[in-house]
Amino acid sequence: MASKSAARARGAQLLEAFRAAGAAEIQPDILQPAGTLLDLYGEDIRARAYVTADPIRGEQMLRPDFTVPVVQEHMANGAEPARYCYLGEVFRKQDHRGAQRVSEYNQVGYEVFDRTSPEAADAEVFALIAAQLAHLPLTATIGDIGILSAVIEGLDTLPARKSALARHIWRPQRFHKLLLRYSGQVPVPAARAALLAGARAEAPWIGLRDSAEMEARIARLKADAAAPALPAETVAALEALLDLRCPAAEAPERLRAIALAGLAPAIARLEARLAALVARGIDTGALIFDASHGRTTMEYYDGFVFTFTAADPDLPPVASGGRYDALTRVLGQGREIPAVGGVIRPGLLADLEGVA
Length: 356
Known about the structure:
Layout: H1 4-20, E1 24-25, E2 31-33, H2 34-41, E3 51-54, E4 58-62, H3 67-77, E5 82-91, E6 104-113, H4 118-133, E7 139-144, H5 145-153, H6 159-167, H7 172-182, H8 190-196, H9 211-226, H10 232-243, E8 245-247, H11 251-256, H12 263-279, E9 288-290, E10 304-309, E11 319-323, H13 325-331, E12 339-344, H14 346-355
Parallel strand pairs: 1-5, 7-9
Antiparallel strand pairs: 2-4, 3-4, 5-6, 6-12, 7-10, 8-9, 10-11, 11-12
Helix pairs in contact: 1-14, 4-12, 5-6, 5-12
């Protein structure tokens, strides 16, 4: 494993390449206000972040990544368009599956805030990172969370159902369970069936919600129960989409073969992105397109996503990134701008270079 000094030195080389591409260096604080991250991701973030308390600043987190503070800085003070780069440590808790992975490591990153052409910006970030890794035998995989979001929005079902599916894109197991329930493939739980049938204990409501809130919740459950089931062919097409994995150059035609509403505009954006990648010298036939790619990463990615991985499946990605337009809207206090970025782990890169 590369030493901290070796990782930092390799990161400095990458940082210089990002500066040469036109990025301004930015250095967010290591301690970040916990409230912002909790508002964005809920209490789930505590499972993967180090939380501490300050008597004046309140609850703080050791920086779990750079994207959120970079977006905050840009939305508060940045001009447009803008390109940023950074190098520094991030901190992530590891569960038993990641016992061999470090919880403190360096990231070097490149972020683009530009309204001109989102697809061209996607290609810029990907190609710049690909150029730094071209000497290693890595596998590059791309995807697009926006494709799945567009399909969900195009479903002929209740807005509440579409909202629930969209909320759980990043939780594949929960998403699958919702699909089964909305398509009538699993029975309604006995307690919910009794509630919908009108059976309710006469005891007072328990918990923080008052009776009006609970009655409104029951009304929503009844509306959901009365809604038509998603057709079996729609569910089959959705599952075919989620399972799609092919050379990126073939992805538009493979997607067209899946009969789902809402796909056409998303396919057009994918084709524009692939054309922009080709214009930057990327062989899209050698890229893997995975329609489910990015569904288990941080939830701020809402469009193009990518990773570069080594052959060893136990290693984390050497580089990763994606588009996070919605995050700028959330943190921009009424302003927003298309944004995309990516990071490289210089310590892991140094390790792989040592054995290449």
